[in-house]
Specification:
38% helix; two-stranded antiparallel ribbon; 2 strands; mainly alpha
Length: 106
């Protein structure tokens, strides 16, 4: 586990069981080949917006609908508040407690 990482909080890594107790994960399927580092928000939002999905509906509720672009806007605003206003850095933990609504998704 000496590969570089942006994470600064090592609690989980420091408390893992010894490697000989880890399960054998066989993930040799073509659809499961991912890079060593992956930002799911980039893949699920940014990439789809690049492909023209910005105005496509994504989240449907009784109160209305959010598009991919609207969700990305809210995600970016939340990320800016967490980093700029609260000083979070990669690896910090954030407890999320919210109602089951679109803002929870964001």
């Amino acid at each position: 586990m000496s590969e570089p990482t942006g994470l600064r909080d090592t609690f989980v890594r420091d408390h893992l069981p010894p490697p000989n107790e880890w399960p054998d994960l066989i993930l040799d399927l073509p659809g499961l080949r991912y890079p060593a580092r992956l930002n799911c928000a980039v893949e699920l939002l940014d990439r789809l917006i690049e492909r023209g999905f910005a105005d496509k509906p994504l989240i449907h509720t009784a109160a209305g609908c959010w598009t991919y672009g609207e969700l990305l806007n809210r995600v970016n605003r939340i990320a800016a508040a967490l980093t700029h206003d609260f000083g979070l850095v990669p690896g910090n933990r954030v407890l999320i407690r919210a109602a089951n609504n679109p803002m929870f998704v964001a």
